[in-house]
Amino acid sequence: MPPTPSLQRDDIVDAAIRILERDGVDGLSMRRLAVELGSKPMTLYHYVPNKSVLLSLALSDIAARIPWQSPTGPPRTRMVTIVMDMYDKLGAIPWVVAILRLGTNVGTPALALADEFFAAASEIGLDDQDTLDLWRSTWYLVVSELHWQDVMSRRGADDRSWYETIDPAEVADMPQVSALLPRWGELSRAFDLHRAVEAQIDGVVARVRG
Question: N or C: which end of the chain has fewer CB within 10 A?
Fold first, then answer.
């Protein structure tokens, strides 16, 4: 069956984003998308081969719409700004965490962030390997923190964290863990992504310059 002449890939992506915003990632399927467009699932496969590609297209489209901050100042400051802006803007999209958890490609528009980060890293004197290592590690920090916040937002009032379920006797032969366990929740809540990103960047720069 040939594709419907009036249907465009942009229409499909826009409809997918509407479903994602309304029903989340689990609510998006080729069947539901077809209903949204007044079409048939098999017709959509002429434009988008599977849901994974569809999610990549949706995320890429959203990334192109985001008014990313233009970093200024010294290169180290710009690098931190880029990472924190990425965290703030992606975290404002309710359905984005589930897509990032799947490892879906964020698309070419988001690479503009990487390009600015790479330029700042080059000014500092990082080589290609250190630059990409640092970009990946800060990206993983962002995704991990977004995922953690998403998990915490879904917790019920009676849900307990793993450290609250451990019997202190089970870790009695682990003195450092035993000492920290009573304060684990307090210390976890005090985690600061901005501070962690700065430490990551400063650590790499210090090693290279040292």
Answer: C
Banded pLDDT at 2 (limits 50, 70, 90): very low
Q: Sign of the CA dihedral 55, 58, 63, 67?
A: negative
CATH class in words for 9-49: mainly alpha
Q: How far is residue 185's CA from residue 198's CA, in Å, rounded to a whole number?
A: 23
This prediction's pTM: 0.84
168: Cβ contacts below 8 Å, ≥ 6 apart: 178, 181
How do residues 97-129 score in pLDDT, each as one tens digit?
A: 777 777 666 667 778 889 999 999 999 999 999
Q: Rg of the Cα trace of the chain?
A: 22
Contact predicate 107/185, CB 8 Å: no
- Nearest of 195, 160, 163 to residue 178 by alpha carbon: 163
Q: What ranges do the domains of the chain cover?
A: 9-49, 68-157+197-209
Greatest Cα pair distance, the chain, in angstroms, is 70
CB atoms within 10 A of CB 205: 19
What are the CA-CA distances from residue 136 to residues 4, 17, 24, 110, 190 (Å)?
Answer: 41, 27, 26, 14, 24
Cβ 180 vs Cβ 187: under 8 Å: yes
Tell me, what's the pLDDT at 99? 79
> Can you say how many angstroms the Cα of residue 73 is from the centroid of all Cα atoms in its chain?
25
Angle at 146 between CA 145 and CA 150, to 5 degrees: 115
The DSSP symbol for 108 reads G
Distance CA 34, CA 207 (A): 53
